[in-house]
Every structure is written in C-alpha cells, then in structure tokens.
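#onboarding

Welcome to the new folks! Below is a worked example of what a typical request in this channel looks like: someone posts a single protein sequence, and someone else replies with the predicted structure as tokens. Don't worry about understanding the tokens yet, we'll cover that in week two.

Example request:
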Amino acid sequence: MGLRDIWGIVVSTMFGTTPELGCSGSFCHLKMYIENIKRKKTAVRSFEILNINELEQEYIMLAMRSKGINIKEFINKFGEDFFIRNKNHLDEIVSKGYLIQTDEFFRLTQKGFLVCDEILINLK
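Example response:
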C-alpha cells in the first residue's frame, strides 16, 4: 500500500507478518501482529527516514526493477552527479546489451533483468 508518490514510484508501507528470518522491523507471527493491533491500535513496529543519498539509491533500485530511470525526472530530483559518476559503467552495460538508453529513460533489457543485482552493485 502506498504512502505517497515522491518521484513517480510510490513509497510503500509494509504491514502484516514477514517471511524473512529474524523478523527485524516486522512481526514474525500473525498472532503477535493481531495482538499489537488490539492493544496499541497500531501495528507499526518500526520506520525509517531516508536521507537524499538513500532516496537516490532507492529510486535507482526500484526504477531499474520496474519502468527504468526517467532521466529528466531523476535529474530534477537528484541532479546529474549519478550520470557523471557512472558514465563509463552505463556506457559499458548499454554496449553489452543489458541496458537501453533513450532520450527519456535508462531501462534494463530482458538480458539485463537477469543480472540486475550485479548491475546495481556496480553503480556508484
């Protein structure tokens, strides 16, 4: 469920139990979740506020896994530094067929989706 749309991607709110091990930040068991709602009238267990660098990283990660990076929108929100810092890497992954660059977007190709995490790890 989205809280608000900050940059064309809805900032999401997770609620309910978690499938993750360790359960940090979420409720491990449905019973715990329901009990917390009954007692506290809320199921909020934790939240975080991201700084501008973290917002940029989140935008990149979410955009690359969905519609792609809208270049104009990204520059309006975060400036051109990302594209300057990553010019060589972006050119390389475009030339290898992992990424398509248009005037408006950087988008992963089908081949790029297979190695998306590796691409994201190598961005600065």
